[in-house]
What does this fold into?
Amino acid sequence: MYFYPKGKITMMKVKPVFLYILGVGLLIFGNRDLWDELQEERAEIQKQQDLLKIQKEVLNQQFDSQKLQYDSVTKKWKNPEFYFQVVNVGKINFKALKKGKTKVETDTDEDATDSQ
It folds into this structure.
């Protein structure tokens, strides 16, 4: 058996551990592509967590309810609250709604018409 002084044994154990940690650090932080991929994955996970948080907030919101009042004179139900109503107007011909363009003619040779 070999006997080493106490100081050499600790240096022999510390040096490989330090070199191993240094190598792993260089492997992770020295590879820029790996670092970018890790950042992208982290950003994507954060987006998913934010979406889940928003979905949970929306699902936990209470439903809005309004009370209708019956008008016995007109025999109709009325809503005293202010609200918006969607009106379906059917098919609209948007081409017919476009305004025509007015062209101004001048007496120059390029723009003059043959009507004279």
Residues 102 and 111 are 14 Å apart (CA to CA). The chain has a mean pLDDT of 79. Residues 32-60 form the longest helix (29 residues).
